[in-house]
Fold:
Amino acid sequence: MSEEKNSKKNQPNVHEQKAEIENLTSQVQELVEQLKRERADAINLRRRFDEEKKSLAIYHKTEIIKDLLPIVDNFERSLKHVPNDLKDNPYIEGINGIVKQFETVFEKLGVRKIVSLNQTFDPNFHEAIALDDNSDGENEIVSEELQAGYMLGSDVLRPALVKVKRQTN
Structure:
């Protein structure tokens, strides 16, 4: 009998066991919640990293294109001043091919020229550097494009340099 009493004393009572179970259950729930938060943080971190990576790629793409635009401008300018007797020269045809190659690459990259000539002047897309003195009216229309403007998607890489005239409707 004394052995039976000693074994009962060594075993925790039912209340202590329930308290221990509740304590362990609480700890498990707390750990599960911490794990859920950590997973959410990891997902947010990964998403933020991907967004920053994409933004950085677009930034570098934009900077490279901006560096190439003056080269294209110089080729196009040179083609505007070719003497008539050299228009069919293979050298000039090669320059034309280079310009077309730039246009093709720009198109693949999502770059497009801003349409300016005979359009209503828009300071978001055009930079007026001259005003036709012989014109009068309320509407400002682009009469000449002096340097092409370019867009990448919906962002203006470079506004078009234009000459503007005023006209009435």
